[in-house]
Amino acid sequence: MPMINLIWVFMAGFGIVFAMFNGTMEEVNEAVFQGAQEAVTLCIGLISVLVFWLGLMNIARHSGLLDTFAKGFRPIVQRLFPEVPANHPAMGYILSNMMANMFGLGNAATPFGIKAMEELKALNGGRPSASRSMITFLVINTSSLTIIPTTVLAIRMNYDSISPAEIVLPTMIATFCSTTGGILIDRYIYYRKHRNGVK
Amino acid sequence: MGIISTVSLWIIPLIIFIILMHGTWKKVPTYECFVEGGKEGIKIAISIIPFLVGMLVSISIFRASGALDFIVNLLRPALAWIGVPAEIVPLAIIRPISGTAALGMTSDLIATFGPDSFIGRLASVLQGSTDTTLYILTVYFGAVGIKKMGDALKIGLLADIVGIVASILIVSFFFGR
Fold this sequence. Notes:
Chain B: Keywords: Membrane, Transmembrane, Transmembrane helix. Chain B: InterPro entries: Gate_dom, SpmB. The structure holds two protein chains of two kinds. By secondary structure, chain A is an all-alpha fold. Chain A is built from eight helices and no strands. Chain B is mainly α. Chain B is about 80% helix and about 0% strand. Chain B starts with a helix and ends with a helix.
């Protein structure tokens, strides 16, 4: 059984059992509806961003700007995604997602990321299971690519830091470590499985 | 700092400008194209709702029941023993699970210990250097209908651990403890 099911059931199941002994049933009741509400609010909030950026990207795709842009960075990204053909539209979306992440445009990154996933799924024959490229792409996203952590900078300024931006370089290095670590772990697991003949 | 904020202020309008100009130059029916692409956005946003509702309800129960605090307290001594400051442990555990909760905790830590303290700096770097693994997994795989996610979750969480360890080492190295 995939791990996500276990984690999902564990959080809710253990939480409810814990509430029985902890006397927090009331809070749990509230949390159920608040959680659901928060999720819907989040998705509704995403509509504006998704519509805007996907609309704009559709222009960029038709005008060929996305391809031109992808060409420049192809050598680097090709190495990370060896299964993606050089001229495939997935390349453009992967790159746009990475760029948006780097510049801290988190809400622009999501639409590109979803589009990239869609293309990667098509490349994988539309199967409902994650391909190697999809996992690599996901890991790059979860380990963050931020160069300038704008939200954190804003919080630091808010609390009168003497030097709000002093954490930019350390954050960049830490980001580099977690992303590189993620890619290496991804590669290691893939090749280990491959050697054992499990695919 | 001045340059950074100017750049981040200009970047989105500039991207919009370049895309629109290039589209017009290449004789793309820009407005129609925009609308066509935008329609897809609505579909995607709606299709993610069940995935996020499921995930966020489970996380909310976990937090509200006190189970999360319980586990954090359970892990605290072990993590403190390998050099993770006790104050940072809840944030390190929350970061991959819930973005909003992590952001709240970061600003709370910065408010309590000060932005220029070891804890404040560490919280800042930690917040910036990893992302909400569970959210990204839910949204990206949910939107395109991936049911078997392979090792994605495991690798994502391991990368988060690398990020946490790296943050602690780097902040200690840059600013001392």
